[in-house]
Amino acid sequence: MTFVILLLLRNYTGIMCKSLESQSKKMTPEWQGKIKILSSSTLVIFLSSVLLYVQNAPFMYYFYFLIPIVLWTMVLYELDVYYEAKAYLRRFEVKMWFLALAVLAVLGLELLVITFFYRGVMSLGLVFIGLWPFTTQLSKRMSVAWLAGCLALGVFPLLPVIGKQHNYTLVTLTGWISIIIFAYCARRSELGLVRNSRQISKEPQRAIVITVLQIILVWVAITIVKSTADSIEHKEGLPLFNQILSWLLLVLSPVLCLFSTTSLFNRLLNLTLSLLVPFLLMCIFYESLFFLTLCLVMFLWICIEHQLSGSTLRLQDMTFEYQSSSTQTKNVTYHIKIDDVRKAYFFMFFMLVAFYGTGNIASLNSFSISSFYCFMTVFRPFTMAAILLIKVLIPLLIVSCAFRALLQSIRVSNTALFLLVFIMSDFTALHFFFLIKDSGSWLDIGMSISHYLLSMGMFIFTAVFHGLAWFLTTFSLDFSGHEFKRHLL
Asked: Tens digits of per-residue pLDDT, 248-273?
């Protein structure tokens, strides 16, 4: 974590903008100190390697011993960054402001830690997040919509985790609500499908065909869920036609979004519909309504951040391949702001909401087989585990795609924000490291280890999901030439 903070201070803040006079005065002693650090670390690495060789230690032990030495050498090599940060705080008299910000950040991260143990705490966090826009210059209408969305999303962590209970009527009702909402969105002029109020050209005919087809597939999915539930209730088993169609939708539906254009609104609409279809096939209770609410909150988040950024380019005029070169140039000199810390925290919080919104680790271990009735009724643990993993990952992917669209719309550095996410996840992991239990019941020991591993892997998971979101939002398949178009940002 110390090394990541170093990278953040050196590359994405204005702290290192020193005067030429101060640089020239410190040049000689600075380089002498760095030479001493390099020589000392080289000696330590050599002695450690000799000690490991004499003891016939396994090859992996060399990595365990040497990697921390290398990292701390890199930290000490750039120790002047921390001195400059300290001088910066003293020069601009922002110690109290920085201390208040640090306390607020720690409290927010502690809230994330508590959510691992008590899902209901996320509802309290969503209330604070919902009230946040009222402290900004955001319009009252958008602030009220954001608060309503966060309050609606905060209801789900207070509900019992998804277990043996089921309510297919609620799943069907959510499907019809989704059809109405997405059909209304498709007719909006901002998407350029039926009408066009954008500065860019109207969507091609294939985009309209793909959107209509996806809405029809949502209807097909809820029909399969209702038909399968009725058939199993009457002891008639899983219809073969429903089973084949469910597997086809699971495989083909996520691919359909790649045939749409890369305009921001249109691709997000198609991507959400592509993931909604297989998710509905796995729903048995209120998780379908949770997914729809999460999608609406993510859309509001994109709109709010775009308005607060002061960008003159409208969201409906943006595409995911927009600013391929200028963004990279700007990222080199990008300086993080306080709002960037908030964006990174919101991303982490919503990732936890997507994971813990309808269940927890214990509920994953005691899942109900009814979640797989559209695919199978015979117990097949490996296949069921794969389907369950897909069900858990789909809400996380929605949050990652929304975050990807947010970064694209407000033109911030991806690397800087992910360094902030890494620092936050490392802080929570350090907290869970001290909470690991080696005594008591096996359940308590296993749960403490699971929390630590989950927090440790959070940054890796978010990086993987961001890469997958980049693929799903940027790549496009063209009907006309059957070519695979790749848009590099």
From this structure: 999 999 998 888 888 888 889 999 99
Q: What element of type H or E holds 182?
A: helix 168-187
Residue 255, CA distances (Å) to 297, 322, 346, 475 in order? 24, 22, 28, 11
Q: Are 115 and 121 in contact (CB under 8 A)?
A: yes
Q: Are 153 and 297 spatial neighbours (Cβ–Cβ below 8 Å)? A: yes
Average pLDDT of span 55-82? 79
| C-alpha neighbours within 13 Å on the C-beta side of residue 467 | 5
**What's the one-letter identity of residue 248?**
L
pLDDT of residue 69: 84
Confidence of residue 19 (pLDDT cuts 50, 70, 90): very low
pLDDT reported for residue 101: 79
Comparing CA positions, the residue from 479, 471, 480, 417 lying closest to residue 267 is 471
- Give residue 167's pLDDT: 85
d(CA 398, CA 290): 12
Residue 205 and residue 25: Cα distance in Å, rounded? 66
Taking all residues of the chain, what is their mean pLDDT, rounded to a whole number?
80
Distance separating alpha carbons of residues 420 and 5, to the nearest angstrom: 8
Taking Cα atoms as reference points, which of 75, 51, 86, 83 lies closest to residue 1?
Answer: 75
Q: What stretch of H or E contains 469? A: helix 458-474
